[in-house]
Design goal:
The protein is an alpha+beta fold. The chain is built from two helices and eight strands. The longest helix has 40 residues, at 3-42. The protein has a domain at 43-122: Galactose-binding domain-like (Jelly Rolls). The strands form two sheets. The protein has a five-stranded antiparallel β-sheet with strand order 1-8-3-6-5. A three-stranded antiparallel β-sheet has the order 2-7-4, with no helix packed on it. It is 45% helix and 26% strand.
């Protein structure tokens, strides 16, 4: 068996493992977002007076998903994505806890409801490793396939066997 064929098989195996990990991680994150949005729908609004804040403490080495809805856009000290009146934000902390807060900068009270869900970092890391394995496996499989084809035709040429003549697709 040709060594490049074996390398190509290894590349395809890495590609399959990476694809599986990527799908697993993506499915997990999709489930977290879906459950967060479902939880937000069941929450009730509470009033946030003018100039007041609601703080969210994120423990060290944690990723959390924050979803909120309010009667007027309020300030949140993180990057947010808005769709259909629902705001989503991913909040993180490194070695020390971080504090994020909703702030009402209006002169009137704003009704707000929010949900905070913790995201399992290990599953996000597995998804990232999966994406890397997909690319590595694809590159290995392509390179091994190209080298395998080249070495196959070189071997054929060295044994004195002429390459097979081209066939006429329109008949004999």
């Amino acid at each position: 068996m040709n060594k490049w064929f074996i390398v190509a098989i290894i590349g395809v195996v890495l590609l399959a493992i990476g694809l599986g990990l990527s799908i697993y991680g993506t499915d997990y994150l999709g489930g977290v977002v879906s459950s967060t949005l479902s939880s937000l729908k069941s929450e009730s609004f509470s009033s946030l007076p003018p100039g007041k804040s609601i703080s969210i403490v994120v423990p060290s080495n944690t990723i959390m998903l924050v979803a909120y809805n309010s009667t007027a856009p309020i300030e949140f000290n993180s990057t947010i994505t808005q769709a259909n009146g629902i705001y989503l934000s991913e909040v993180t902390s490194t070695t020390t806890p971080s504090v994020y807060s909703f702030t009402n900068n209006y002169t009137h009270a704003v009704d707000v409801k929010y949900v905070v869900k913790t995201i399992d970092i290990s599953k996000v890391e597995m998804a990232g490793i999966g994406v890397i394995l997909v690319f590595v496996g694809l590159i290995i499989a392509i390179i091994a396939g190209i080298i395998g084809v080249i070495s196959y035709f070189r071997k054929k040429r060295q044994t004195g066997m002429p390459p097979s003549p081209p066939t006429n697709p329109y008949g004999p």
